[in-house]
Amino acid sequence: MSFEQLFSSSSTLAMLGWVILVFLPRRWTWLNPISSVFIPLVLSLLYSFLIARYFFSAEGGFDSLANVQHLFNYPAAALAGWVHYLAFDLFVGGVIAKQADEIGLSRLIQAPILLLTFMFGPFGYLAFMLIKTAMLRLKSSAPESEMEMK
Questions:
Q1: Residue 11: in which H helix or E strand, if any?
Q2: What is the pTM of this model?
Q3: CB count, 10 Å around CB of 138?
Q4: What residue numbers bound the domain in which 134 lies?
Q5: How many domains in the chain?
Q6: Are 18 and 114 in contact (CB under 8 A)?
Q7: Angle at 47 between CA 45 and CA 101, to 5 degrees
Q8: Lesser CB count within 10 Å: N end or C end of the chain?
Q9: How far apart are CA 29 and CA 115, in angstroms?
């Protein structure tokens, strides 16, 4: 399979994971591990193969920005980097979704956070952590009588 085909296949697989995570009901418990565990694991296997097979034949490195740019001029390294992003962002999205469900965060609020995570990884994670912290503080500061009514 060519690098372009691997790029397309891994992107499609990750997109399937995000569709499951954002749009499908989490009450179908058998579906949850597909997007948060199985797909990131498959992507991690592809990443590991690419690194083991091609990384040491690429020029560049991680010691300077110029060397990172040089490394990603090598198609296999660029593909590995892309798959790395796909795997970790989807995994983090799965963690966010699980924790958001646990704290009772509405799926309408989760969706934009997950889309931010899909598009901009750490930015979505930061948004979730800020919202989660605010929600937990509000819940812990609610008067006891209000808590008893719920």
A1: helix 3-23
A2: 0.86
A3: 9
A4: 3-149
A5: 1
A6: yes
A7: 70
A8: C
A9: 21
Q: Assign 64 to helix, strand or coil.
A: coil
Report DSSP state, residue 74.
Answer: S
Q: Helices (DSSP H) in 24-121: which residue ranges?
A: 32-33, 39-54, 65-71, 75-102, 107-120
- Residue for token pair 């966010």: 96
Q: How far is CA 111 from CA 2, 34, 38, 40, 102, in A?
A: 34, 18, 21, 19, 15
What is d(CA 129, CA 19) in angstroms, rounded to the nearest whole number? Answer: 22
Q: What is the pLDDT of residues 20-61, one digit of tens each?
A: 999 998 888 888 899 999 999 999 999 999 999 988 888 888
The one-letter amino acid at 18: W
Half-sphere exposure of 48 (CA within 13 A, CB side): 6
Here the tokens at position 93 are 């999205």
pLDDT tens-digit map of 62-93: 899 999 999 889 999 999 999 999 999 999 99
